[in-house]
Design a protein that fits this description.
Layout (H helix, E strand, L loop, with lengths): L2 H13 L3 H5 L3 H4 L1 H8 L4 H9 L29 H8 L7 E5 L5 E3 L1 H5 L3 E10 L3 E11 H8 L7 E10 L4 E8 H4 L5 E6 L2 E2 L9 E3 L12 E7 L25
Parallel strand pairs: 1-10
Antiparallel strand pairs: 1-2, 3-4, 4-7, 5-6, 5-10, 7-8, 7-9
This protein binds the ligand Nc1nc2c(c(=O)[nH]1)N[C@H]1C(S)=C(S)[C@@H](COP(=O)(O)O)O[C@H]1N2 and molybdenum atom.
Keywords: Signal
Organism: Marinobacter halodurans
Protein name: Twin-arginine translocation signal domain-containing protein
Length: about 250
Amino acid sequence: MTDNTRRRFLKTLLAGGGLATLTGCDYLSEKTWFRDTLAQGETLSDVVQHAVTPRKAMAREYTPADISPSFRANGTTDPDAVEYRMLAANGFRDYRLKVGGMVENPMTLDLAAIRALPSRTQITRHDCVEGWSAIGQWTGARLSTLVEQARPHPDARYLVFHCADRYGRSHSPYYESIDMEDAHHPQTLLAYELNGEPLPIANGAPLRLRVERQLGYKMAKYVMAIEVVESFDHIAGGKGGFWEDRGYAWYAGI
Ligand SMILES: Nc1nc2c(c(=O)[nH]1)N[C@H]1C(S)=C(S)[C@@H](COP(=O)(O)O)O[C@H]1N2
Ligand SMILES: [Mo]
């Protein structure tokens, strides 16, 4: 579909009731993200899902009895980059998270500083597109606090997470991105503990993203840097993530 057909189709859809009663007639068209996502070529189903999913709603949380006996690891489970191996060998004492890009206050934080940020513990279900799920308890820093401390530029729209690993035979760096709305969601964490223990290397040590309303591939492991951007067009394949560059949806809502 061309952007024009897409727009016309959506207009018809909105005029026909359904979405319109959910969102208010001209709510969508007033939203700049909506016009921009269409312009960026997000598929219609992405846009509709984005529109009807209450983005501020909480993901379901579970009880300790629901925790999976073992939390499966997937994708990279042991990054072989020399810099990462050196950090791991030293128990991540020399690890530093960089927060930069379109911010007034770029930051470099060690793990003690990250652990000192307001934290949250949550038991959630992780769903991988490959067809498996696992329930785990995550503890981490609330991303919202960190973002506010960095003071993003008013035009900033996304956070890009740069990871330590290159995935599989592609040898391309793993990366991911989320928007400001997800960055401010109370369940969005930079997690450093899984099931009450320090995050294992297999699951992303020392720091991995949890963005609980979305699928597993959004949850960047081995996060080394967070870059605040207005657009991710210029990064790698331009689609906002390693798997997005290979055809997966940018907004992977569950
Ligand atoms: N850096 C990095 N992050 C990643 C991946 C990866 O290969 N590298 N795989 C993703 C996928 S597809 C899933 S399902 C989850 C797996 O997380 P887990 O290993 O804790 O199960 O991490 C996601 N984040
Ligand atoms: Mo996955």
